[in-house]
Amino acid sequence: MQAVIDVRGTGASSGDWGMFDDVEQRDTAEVVAWAQAQPWCDGSVGMYGISYCSINSLQAAGNRVPGLGAVFAVEPVSDISRDLMKTGGAQTFFMPLWMLAVALGKWLPSPSDVVRGGIAPGWLAGRLRAPLNRVIRYIFEGLRGRGTLIDNDEYFRQISPRFEDIEIPTFVYGAWDDIFGPAALRIHRRISMPDGRFQVIINEGYHGSPGSQLGRPDGPPRLDVLQRAWFDKWLKGIDNGIDRYGPVTLQQQNGGWHTLETYPRPEAVPQRFYLDAEPSGFAAHTSLDGSLGAAAPRGRTEHRLHRRPGLLKSPTTSRLMSGMTAALGTSGLKDSRYFERGALTFTSAAATEPWVISGPLNLHLRTRANGAEAFWVVSVTDVAPDGFSRMLAEGALLTSRRAVDEAKSVRGVDGDYLSPWHPTGKGQKMPVEPGVSTTLDIDLTEVDAMIKTGHRLRVVISAASLPRYIPSIPELWASRHGQSVVLDPDQPSYLVAPVVIGARAGAA
């Protein structure tokens, strides 16, 4: 038996929509208790959901809701603020657009729901009380860069699932080009359960096409098959082998399907790739065709970065729009070269043998802001011999948000950051002194990518990527004087990436 419940304040439900708040979380616990009490239920209850509903499910698991026996979460977030709402301190166009869609949709309950159960008491009163939910407030606070909603650290802490407290069997599915990035792999780092009770699958795809790569001869079964097997095992006790499936199953970027005991790959060793102004000879379309290599630059150079919006034809926009920009063709969906115009790029030599990047990435970058703020957008791409530049990872950071929370960050054995965690709440900005060089560590999304023979690795640095990242009006005004990347042999800039090279990479 399956029950689909409209969240408070949406669909046919009355009340005010709280967007994951504590009231909504208590509602979830009440729904689980209600389901357990029904005559058609034997007491075993599982939760399944895509996107918003997957977050509801993981919240319930982290809250240890009584009676909840298993969860199957499709395309969730690892941290709502970090993954989407305030990545690197910047807002995103997706949030007000999505919130507006929810606000308008709540006025149109499902006709079938109305026929079956009618309209709940107080339905109209709740909608009249808050006709657009928090949309106007969110937009206003986002434009001015501060407010009780976007700066409410307690709210973001409250709504993010408590992964470390999850004890019930949990299956998480994600996609490399999901809106939230490959959040499933960040979740994997925070959940530890034995005996196959926690499983992760991640494959090529977007937020709008979950499971599109599944069900083929060379890969895992369809999502619905996996979901049924998961609940059969953990709610009905059927020994179907799903607990021996992973625990990490991924479709490698530029590669095939792999089953891993853990992620990142334990054989991956963090390595520095230094940024140098020496031309690579492979990126004439960009503002700077620099190189990426094993040695720091020999001389000091400074390179001004011009703000170019990026707009629709970019892989970051394709991620944000759930792949809907496919109408613009493959060049806008996957190829980063259009976006790279006006950017600073640093490209490695062609690989002489296959190698693998596996894990979180960090760009250690020496910068200079000419004003009181600067915004940095970074991506890492795989460049094919024909020049096609495929984005593997992305990240962004306001210079004022460069503070690092050591307790939440990940460092390699040599001390370099692999995954720096930047606080984005109220009172956590750092001053930016105009004209003074500043070092940043910019967190990038996780990867597991094969760099094939003849392919190259590229770091792309720009000052804007609309509509994915939207700094506030005060931040944009403070950054109007421009910014530069400083390449200094005494304080070098470099990408930190865990790599597997040689025969082990070929077997990865």
Features:
alpha+beta; Rossmann fold; 6-stranded mixed β-sheet; 15 helices
Question: Which helices and strands occur, and which strands form pairs?
Answer:
Layout lengths: L21 H15 L8 E6 L1 H11 L5 E7 L5 H6 L8 H12 L5 H7 L5 H7 L5 H10 L8 H7 L10 E8 L5 H6 L9 E9 L16 H14 L11 E4 L5 E4 L8 E8 L11 E6 L7 E5 L9 H6 L9 H4 L3 H4 L3 E4 L7 E15 L5 E9 L5 E10 L11 E2 L5 E3 L17 E15 L4 E7 L10 H6 L4 E5 L6 E8 L1 H5 L1
Parallel strand pairs: 1-2, 2-3, 3-4, 4-5, 8-10
Antiparallel strand pairs: 5-6, 7-8, 7-19, 9-18, 10-17, 11-16, 11-18, 11-19, 12-13, 12-17, 14-15
Helix pairs in contact: 4-7
Write up what this structure looks like.
It comes from Mycobacteroides abscessus MAB_091912_2446. GO terms for molecular function: dipeptidyl-peptidase activity. By secondary structure, the protein is α+β, with helices and mostly antiparallel strands. It folds into two domains: 239 residues, Rossmann fold, CATH 3.40.50; 233 residues, Sandwich (Jelly Rolls). The chain is built from 15 helices and 19 strands. Strands 7, 8, 9, 10, 11, 12, 13, 16, 17, 18 and 19 form an eleven-stranded mixed beta sheet that branches. Strands 1-2-3-4-5-6 form a six-stranded mixed beta sheet, with helices on both faces. Strands 14-15 form a two-stranded antiparallel ribbon. The mean pLDDT is 91.
